[in-house]
Design brief:
Layout (H helix, E strand, L loop, with lengths): L6 E2 L2 E2 L13 H23 L2 H26 L28 H5 L11 H16 L1
Antiparallel strand pairs: 1-2
Length: 137
């Protein structure tokens, strides 16, 4: 395979249906680094029988999750799925963050529901049938 293309798991990268560009954001890497550090500290402290170190490790894990969420809300994360080609660099801020990402739990927790996904079709149909039944009575 001397084609000059990168090889991922024995296959050329062009053979993958979705290139591995689903992450790589400041929020994602910061959260991951803090959570891995906290897990390491907690694991070593657990093995050593140190309750204070275990507590510190768990606090670092919680801080990592909080930091990733806050960075996501500040625009340094992204919505689920691949980014458009022009916004794939990891230092690119996400302009859709202020409205909220469709189906994003982090955005919903922050009260950003403008970009929320529409209700599933069966639910909308059920609501319409209830409205019709209420109009008939």
């Amino acid at each position: 395979m001397a084609t000059g293309q990168p090889v991922l798991l024995g296959r050329p990268s062009s053979a993958w249906p979705v290139k591995l560009l689903l992450g790589h954001t400041v929020a994602g890497w910061t959260g991951t680094a803090l959570v891995v550090t906290g897990t390491t500290v907690a694991g070593i402290a657990f093995a050593a029988g140190d309750a204070v170190g275990l507590s510190c490790g768990l606090v670092i894990v919680a801080f990592g999750a909080l930091a990733a969420w806050l960075l996501h809300l500040a625009g340094w994360g992204k919505a689920t799925g691949p980014r458009p080609p022009g916004a794939r660099h990891w230092r690119t801020r996400d302009a859709a963050t202020r409205r909220g990402h469709p189906g994003c739990l982090g955005c919903r927790l922050a009260g950003r529901t403008a970009g929320a996904a529409a209700a599933p079709a069966p639910l909308r149909a059920r609501e319409r049938s209830r409205e019709r039944a209420g109009a008939r009575s």
